[in-house]
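Here is the promised in-class demo. Please do not try to memorize the tokens; focus on the logic of going from shape to residues.
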């Protein structure tokens, strides 16, 4: 064993002692899960259901303090999805008098806090080896069987360490607001590489696209930068939700850790920036920032976040096309409000805009381009291989243009659920944004990866 590997292994053991659930904590979680499974199975016995306790808590790969309990209700395949969702909802509400909320990912499921545990109840169909999966979530009980047979006690420890490593960097979680590493992805990666050390040692040298296939039986092509083939479903990439940015952040994080391993990669201090710090960061930039704010509609995060990002991308694209180049754009939800931030180099753009046309040798396209810009300030003229014209801009002010644009939701293909809010959005200056969301504003203006 190399000196570097010995140092990391000693550190991993120190971290594991701090993050492994206490025996009493783990047992309490398992007792609750068993009892909840028994009650649901009895209530739904007329349909021949089977209950499955799966996920991190069931596989002993969860972190201390995590209270997640995932319960799968497996129905016979002859039933329909709408029916099993309705019956699961009825049974859960009858047995547990709590505020169940229906969520939608690959399949509808119920979520609530029950006896202090963040409980998810997911209806699915029983697996038939001779037939394809009937719903996306039918894989989960099969994942449980697959990983329970293969993950060693030491690897389970390393999965916990990996999760803490990722959480500390804001990279853990498959929800769309994070676009990070799921628990299943963590388990597959440790299983494939053998240990936490071997994974981060490999990740520091990854050059996307990276493809991992534990069973070596998938021929399907994928577009994502990290592809980890599901051992249960060869047509599925377990890393599909992981964003390109977060993959590269993980690679850089791994490089920094291997170079100089320390506890800061697991237990860094999160210092909340003040309003004064955010205000200073804004002033130092000397740019022009506009924020749109409107009330968030009553939607689950699985729907709201993609709608907000779609609207942000659409507005950004139209701003760029219109000649208002952006330094940055971002969207987030804070205290029941949706925010979209747009940062420009300056509030006003020049009075003249150069429009690039077709290749000079393409006479038909040049004719169409000239007709489309028949009263230019300059041109058509050739520069290099292209034809250009220069035109007088109709609107120089970024804020005025954005206000007009935001009301024409069809133009930028906004998220349909957000259209009423977008049309009535309030526009904030950079300083007003700082007052209302200082933490998010500071991160927008002053973001820095903690390991550099």
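The designed amino acids, position by position:
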């Amino acid at each position: 064993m190399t000196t570097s590997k010995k140092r990391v292994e000693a550190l991993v053991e120190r971290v594991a002692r701090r993050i492994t659930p206490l025996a009493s904590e783990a047992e309490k979680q398992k007792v609750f899960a068993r009892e909840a499974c028994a009650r649901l199975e009895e209530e739904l016995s007329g349909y021949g259901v089977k209950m499955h306790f799966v996920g991190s808590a069931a596989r002993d790969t969860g972190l201390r303090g995590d209270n997640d309990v995932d319960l799968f209700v497996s129905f016979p395949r002859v039933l329909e999805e709408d029916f099993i969702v309705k019956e699961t909802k009825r049974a859960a509400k009858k047995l547990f008098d709590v505020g169940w909320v229906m969520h939608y990912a690959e399949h509808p499921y119920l979520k609530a806090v029950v006896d202090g545990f963040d409980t998810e109840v997911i209806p699915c169909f029983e697996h038939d080896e001779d037939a394809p999966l009937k719903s996306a979530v039918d894989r989960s009980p099969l994942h449980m069987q697959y990983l329970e047979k293969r993950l060693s006690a030491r690897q389970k420890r390393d999965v916990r360490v990996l999760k803490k490593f990722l959480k500390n960097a804001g990279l853990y979680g498959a929800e769309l607001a994070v676009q990070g590493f799921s628990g299943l992805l963590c388990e597959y990666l440790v299983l494939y590489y053998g240990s936490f050390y071997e994974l981060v040692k490999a990740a520091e040298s990854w050059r996307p696209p990276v493809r991992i296939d534990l069973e070596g039986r998938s021929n399907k092509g994928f577009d994502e930068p990290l592809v980890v083939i599901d051992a249960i479903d060869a047509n599925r990439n377990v890393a599909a939700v992981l964003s390109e940015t977060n993959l590269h952040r993980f690679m850089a994080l791994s490089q920094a850790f291997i170079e100089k391993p320390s506890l800061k990669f697991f237990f860094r201090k999160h210092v909340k920036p003040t309003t004064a710090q955010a205000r200073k960061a804004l002033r130092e930039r000397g740019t022009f920032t506009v924020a749109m704010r409107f009330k968030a509609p009553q939607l689950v995060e699985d729907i709201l976040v993609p709608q907000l990002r779609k609207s942000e991308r659409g507005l950004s694209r139209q701003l760029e096309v219109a000649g208002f180049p952006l330094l940055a754009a971002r969207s987030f939800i804070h205290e029941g409000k949706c925010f979209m931030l747009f940062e420009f180099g300056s509030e006003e753009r020049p009075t003249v805009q150069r429009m690039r046309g077709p290749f000079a040798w393409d006479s038909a396209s040049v004719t169409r381009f000239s007709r489309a810009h028949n009263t230019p300030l300059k041109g058509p003229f050739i520069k290099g291989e292209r034809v250009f014209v220069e035109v007088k801009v109709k609107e120089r002010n970024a804020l005025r243009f954005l206000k007009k644009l935001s009301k024409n939701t069809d133009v930028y293909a906004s998220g349909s659920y957000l259209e009423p809010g977008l049309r009535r959005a309030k526009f904030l200056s950079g300083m007003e944004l700082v007052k209302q969301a200082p933490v998010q504003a500071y991160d927008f203006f002053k973001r820095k990866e903690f390991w550099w």
